[in-house]
């Protein structure tokens, strides 16, 4: 099975995305135009990304005191990506975009993630520009967003700070009005920013003429105090190099300085930085602070930023899924070609017989089927969520609203599940290779290292779990959980009609009921500290239930397809999930249902 | 909790090893002499190992065409280790040893593994020399083993070959008698060896004057054919530099040549090599082939080698446990000192309050308690197995025989369980650190990379599982499983008397019964291919049951101890294991009991 044929199956047979072309926004599209985009991306990924994946791991970004040096291959990959038009794939045709469904955009981007997850930093630039399209002024869109969509400039998201980490309410970057006329700047109300931003991906490089930082900062009150909490957070555009209202560089360097490169365990093709804003390294226009232009109203910064969070989290989930896929493909190839050992039983007793390829050993098959089940399941989940994004944007008001609510509930799973289980897939890929897998002569150890990031960035596992159990399943009186339950029930009902799938349908119905009961039990005492003590095990069980549903739904389509090894493999991956994975939810839900406080109550000094 | 106080508790309070001093072999020992060894090792590990753990990761072994260059710190660590006497800790006093119980030796070595798992290669040298003490001639012991125990020479184990991997029956290294008088050599029957050996740890270095390779090879029959299968395997001593019967170097280099260094994901302080034997790089004494001296009878090679396997596997398990411990300690320290976020509930609503240390967050506590439960549980398991080794060597005949059989059953768990779960612990240690954990400025990502080796070397996870379900639980009519069951039942019975532990006792009894039933069900069809299709899930369930038993047994002792945060912590780690971990066995045993063939039956072309 190639990734492409899996993608085609999921897009066209399972999600039936051709039907999107009946909608006005996508009316100019057809299966042919979708395929052309997928073809192009698959080719660029194969030619400009995959061959350099190990290179970007060994040649880490270097700071020479002036510039960040990246391998030539990274420059070429960026150029090819920008030239493909993918940066503006989802944008209106009239501003140079393709008006492509997000589902197709996400699928096309999967090829880059599979080829080299860390070369490409397109996602941040697109997210940055999308945010400006949603919340920026007309001139901010024209000057900043459009130049990002064209690939002329790149973008970042500057949220975290060294002292605050995930706790955005504690950020301390300050933004003060830049002079009496600060509101008169055509690029937006002008401020001076001072502070440190940590974990900024692509925060400094020479890939593009300019870098557009989107920065969260607080505007002090008249006494110079910062408003505590997230309510005080505003959003600013802080270009590395200042530009005029026409989008031309003015020749002035803004006071944004690289304070350090983070040296990571993996994902080394993307620069990760600590940036100092307004520290005086590059004094600009005779006053202190980096110049930034406010986006939206004061205090609305976090709301603006979260606008893009769902897509960013789908992007992380897709990256994790594609690392899982890359490891699966590598270990499948190895297992087919590596002769070692003999079959179990009488046939294997004769040492004079030649060894067999290791793919014939049951435990190797188990490790391969687990990977297939994790990676293809994760891909299907991400594409399902991407389809919900399209529904939210182009569906009927009712369908759009349902999609929005469903996305809220599914996003923590879309982010966390592939991060956890496709990392496990990568570990299995190493294991299939034996000692070779532990060497840097084979690609799988890098996939594993690269993938370890995904449970951390864009909201850690713990944050996703709190979001799911503490917010998402409660919001709008539990409507998200009800909608999801209805969709799962609908799949169960269809699967019950198919004798081969009926037992799975039954198992999924029970799992759904167990998750629902655990949700109730978690909140039964009304104390959030009780409920959230086991938010991560809850999320793990929720995630496995969602994936079982995805697999059963995919299985319904696969089951109707023509007899072929591909059909056999898909149905086996589904069956693997139901037999080996879904039963795990019992252990996770038990502590949730009991509101187990073994961990939460342990005093610090007892560890 | 320091590692030392945990070790003391397990050795003296739980395993009551002082009673060993009543045995003749250990009569000269006392708690004071045991403590002195532990003190010395703790100090050397702190001074000579821990400070250089990152250094050996970044300064990988380099081959300059002539020699393998290791950091100076590695030379100093080796020297300090050899001077401590630990290489001969278990040996008779009359040959310069300490006659130390293996339990104390294993505990003392734990400090080195925790400080820097990959600097020390002492384990292989000791294993090599121990094997010679068991199977070598008197002169082989004197010339080779004693010079290894003194640290003058180092040792290796050369089993794998590039084409054979775990399948030792397929090794192709040939050993032919070296001349008509080959049997007359005082060092043992002399052969000429030709072949390639892969994955040889410490296969080339300048730490010692000489390197003594123990090599598995096949002696061809009169037609020059190798006997297929493991029956044809013999064992040879192949010194890097030839020596005379007095143990002096003769000045001749033997024909053992470094063919390549493996570049690993972690564990980089230890050289891992591909060695060519008898390829003609260093022609010696006018004939082709590397000179080797046979140990034991022809065809007995694998049996001799397996003599040392149990201790080697306990060593791997201990290494994995100590990496888990190192990550736990690092993340506990980080969690205590990193302020971020606020409590859940009303107290956390006021953003003007200062952030709290992250150790106060329930999910961080969960990640810490899981690590504690994995790492301390694994340490207890390894020490228990080490205690069985002492019983096997110095117990009454009946007790020794029971210990031998129990060790056979427990060894796959002692090897595999820490390799899997202390790797998970290291992943949690990264997660506690957030983004910092993913950088090379903190030690945890290295622990995680180092630990990934342990599921691979000294028999992969899959091999351990086949050994457990395919051999160990069946041998001697299931006596191993019966003995283990009796010990578990004895712990259950005692715990039932303690109200606080009674529920755990009940859960453990049920788990034991479930494992027993699954063992029966796995073999019910009589077809090994049915039983072994799910050998790994079986081993996972078996391992979790064993660890639950270990924790309950430790908990019984902890429960009787004085009220103190340490007692609270131990009982919480036990409770964590029973609430969060043991329930996982249901999912694993289900596929075993059903003899699920979803994976085993999938045709190759369907993946």
UniProtKB/TrEMBL annotation, chains A, B:
Q: Which Pfam families match?
A: Acyl-CoA_dh_1, Acyl-CoA_dh_C, Acyl-CoA_dh_N
Give the required cofactors: FAD
Q: Which UniProt keywords apply?
A: FAD, Flavoprotein
Signal peptide residue numbers: none
Q: Do the record's keywords include Flavoprotein?
A: yes
- Family affiliation: Belongs to the acyl-CoA dehydrogenase family.
Protein's recorded name: Butyryl-CoA dehydrogenase
Q: Which organism is it from?
A: Tibeticola sediminis
The root-end lineage is: Bacteria, Pseudomonadati, Pseudomonadota, Betaproteobacteria, Burkholderiales
């Amino acid at each position: 099975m190639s990734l492409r044929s899996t993608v085609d199956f999921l897009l066209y047979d399972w999600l039936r995305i051709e039907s999107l072309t009946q909608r006005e926004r996508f009316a100019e599209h057809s299966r042919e135009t979708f395929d052309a985009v997928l073809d192009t991306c698959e080719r660029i990924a194969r030619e400009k990304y995959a061959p350099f994946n190990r290179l970007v791991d060994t040649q880490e970004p270097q700071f020479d005191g002036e510039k960040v040096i990246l391998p030539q291959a990274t420059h070429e990959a960026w150029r090819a990506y920008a030239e493909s038009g993918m940066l503006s794939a989802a944008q209106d045709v009239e501003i140079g975009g393709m008006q492509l469904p997000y589902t197709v955009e996400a699928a096309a981007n999967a090829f880059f993630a599979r080829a080299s997850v860390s070369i490409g930093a397109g996602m941040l630039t697109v997210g940055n520009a999308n945010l400006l399209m949603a919340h920026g002024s007309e001139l901010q869109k024209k000057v900043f967003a459009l130049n990002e969509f064209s690939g002329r400039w790149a973008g970042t998201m500057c949220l975290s700070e060294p002292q605050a980490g995930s706790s955005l309410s504690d950020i301390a970057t300050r933004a003060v009005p830049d002079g009496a006329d600060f509101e008169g700047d055509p690029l937006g109300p002008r401020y001076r920013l001072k502070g440190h931003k940590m974990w900024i991906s692509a925060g400094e490089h020479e890939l593009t003429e300019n870098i557009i930082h989107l920065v969260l900062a607080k505007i002090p009150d008249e006494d110079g105090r910062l408003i505590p909490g997230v309510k005080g957070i505003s959003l600013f555009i802080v270009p590395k190099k200042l530009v005029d209202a026409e989008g031309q560089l003015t020749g002035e360097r803004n006071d944004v300085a690289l304070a350090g490169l983070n040296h990571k365990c993996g994902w080394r093709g993307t620069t990760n930085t600590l940036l100092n804003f307004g520290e005086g390294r590059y004094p600009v226009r005779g006053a202190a602070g980096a110049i930034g232009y406010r986006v939206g109203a004061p205090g609305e910064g976090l709301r603006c930023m979260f606008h893009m969070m769902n897509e960013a989290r789908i992007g992380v989930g897709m990256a994790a899924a594609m690392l899982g896929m890359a490891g699966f493909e590598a270990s499948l190839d190895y297992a087919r070609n590596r002769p070692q050992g003999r079959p179990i039983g009488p046939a294997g007793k004769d040492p004079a017989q030649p060894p067999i390829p290791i793919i014939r050993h049951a435990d190797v098959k188990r490790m391969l089927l687990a990977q297939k089940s994790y990676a293809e399941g994760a891909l299907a989940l991400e594409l399902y969520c991407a389809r919900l994004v399209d529904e939210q944007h182009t569906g009927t008001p009712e369908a759009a609203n349902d999609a929005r609510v469903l996305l809220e509930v599914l996003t923590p799973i879309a982010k966390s599940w592939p991060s956890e289980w496709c990392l496990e897939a990568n570990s299995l890929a190493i294991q299939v290779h034996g000692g070779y897998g532990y060497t840097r002569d084979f690609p799988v150890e890098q996939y594993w290292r690269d993938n370890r990031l995904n449970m951390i960035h864009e909201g850690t596992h713990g944050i996703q779990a709190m979001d799911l159990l503490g917010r998402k399943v409660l919001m709008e009186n539990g409507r998200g959980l009800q909608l999801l339950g209805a969709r799962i029930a609908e799949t169960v009902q269809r699967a019950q009609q198919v004798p081969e799938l009926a037992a799975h349908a039954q198992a999924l119905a029970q799992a759904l009921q167990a998750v629902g009961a655990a949700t109730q039990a978690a909140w039964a005492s009304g104390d959030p500290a009780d409920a959230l003590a086991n938010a991560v095990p809850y999320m793990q069980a929720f995630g496995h239930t969602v994936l079982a549903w995805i697999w059963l739904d995919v299985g319904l389509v696969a089951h109707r397809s023509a007899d072929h090894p591909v059909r056999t493999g898909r149905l086996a991956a589904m069956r693997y999930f139901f037999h080996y994975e879904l039963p795990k939810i019992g252990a996770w839900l038990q502590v949730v249902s009991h509101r187990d406080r073994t961990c939460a109550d342990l005093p610090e000094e007892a560890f």
